[in-house]
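1st attempt posting a full record on here, be nice pls
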Amino acid sequence: MFQNIGEIIILLWKTIKDLPRVWIERKKVFEQLYEIGNASLLMACILSAFIGGVVSLQTGPVVVERGLGEVLGGVVGIAVCKELAPVMMAVLIAGRIGSAMTAEIGSMQVYQEIDALRTMNISPIRFLVLPRIVAISIALPTLVIFAILVGWFGGAIVAAYNYQIGIPMKTFFNNLKNVVEFQDLMHGLVKTFVFAVVIGVISCHQGLTTVGGPRGIGRSVTKSVVNSIVMILILDYFLTRLLLYIEK
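the predicted structure (as tokens):
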């Protein structure tokens, strides 16, 4: 475990050192942006709409029963903005994009294409890792912004049309506007950026260390997704504590 952590940190450091050369690989960055961002947008919107709807459905009857129905917009707004959208989108991208990154780089490693790059004096980190990490670091926070907006809208629809809640959308959004502040949005986006870097580095590292043919690629993909999700949940706690401390 400690060896893997050390290798991941070294890979991240080498990627940061190559960051000034990202413009050279801009075409690959744009390709990854399309795959991570545009191709994932519909799935992200569907997921976030139901997340907002579920939060509204779970909390709505409780607050209405206690005569606090007007605060539902703020509850859903904070929950989606600061926690649910960043974490769920990160998990979605770890499963959809992280696994693809690992499989692609892992197959290149198994079939010695990465050795061929080194033979041609082409850095695998600059050619393969850098574009993917830069792209996911841009695309995932952008996806989360869409997810937050769609999640709020999904929660408002459930609040307005569920017979146990019956809170007008205007009341819902007025309370949301009064409760949710810009720093709450930044709270979620900062966490999302860290999650994106973690997913990219872990996925690329697992691909670069793949051994054992097709079966090895499958093991690397599994490790990539599992390790990414575990790290997302662990970092979510510590980042939340840190950001709440900073906000105070």
